[in-house]
Amino acid sequence: MELKFEFSKDFEFKRVERTLEKFDWYDSQGYGPRLPRGITKDSSDEEIKKQISLEFDEKRYLEVRDWISSDFSKIKNKLETKLKKIFGKEIPDEYIVYLTDYGVGGSYNLPNIVIFNINSKKGFKTVVHEIVHLIIEEWITKYEIQHWEKERIVDSILNSEEFDFLDYNHWQRNYRNTEGYIDSLFKELFSKNKDNFFSKIGEIRPKSN
Questions:
Q1: For residue 113, what are the β-bridge partners?
Q2: Which are the contacts of 106, defined by CB distance < 8 A and separation ≥ 6?
Q3: Which of 68, 91, 123 is the last residue of a domain?
Q4: What is the distance between the alpha carbons of residues 158 and 190, in angstroms, rounded to a whole number?
């Protein structure tokens, strides 16, 4: 499993565009996405591009690339082995990591794209978090798993004993009470039958969700 890093002003513009499109949703979920200084939903494309150019510092991206690459190289073989064992399927040989100065801490796009915010302090652990999202996305889509449910599931996976070599040790501040029903189901079914685990979530989800 290898990581290929990309970054550019063009990608930053697309990232800011996408962040502005989803800004209300991010705000409703308690996220605080980063935008270029002075940029709002009313800013023109030219204003956004100009501010991105002013803030773009290639050295920062290269430093983060080298930091993540170094840390990831130490765990990548064991990580790949564990992921194949736990999920019982092949995973991509390469993940493309787009480095960005904007938006939230991490995102993902199928089939193998990870987006990492260079302001994040979690480094390779965020990359691994997004990789697990990519691996389980087929179940997320098939069984219509909600946002905070999938976040609790990914963090439960990475905090499990199987992944103790990562020293992941991260839980988000607020899972919107999904842990109340996800945790017991995860403990009971996840390691036994993934389809059964994901399919049951909709059945036990409180109606208020």
A1: 96, 109
A2: 114, 115, 116, 117, 120, 126, 127, 129, 130
A3: 123
A4: 13
DSSP 143-193: TT--HHHHHHHHHHHHTSGGGGGG------S--TTTHHHHHHHIIIIITT-
Alpha-carbon span 190 to 14, nearest angstrom: 36
The helix (H) or strand (E) run that includes residue 2 is strand 2-6
Assigned domain for 169 exists: yes
CA distance 79 to 162: 10
Written as six digits, the tokens of 9 are 């002003």
Range of the domain at 113: 1-123
Q: Are strands 94-100 and 106-109 parallel, antiparallel or unpaired?
A: unpaired
Q: Report d(CA 84, CA 112) in Å as an integer.
A: 15
User: Has residue 129 been placed in a domain?
Assistant: no
pTM of the full structure: 0.96
Instruction: Say how many CA atoms lie within 13 Å of 10 toward its Cβ.
Output: 1
pLDDT digits (tens, 9 = 90+) for 163-198: 999 999 999 989 999 999 999 999 999 999 999 999
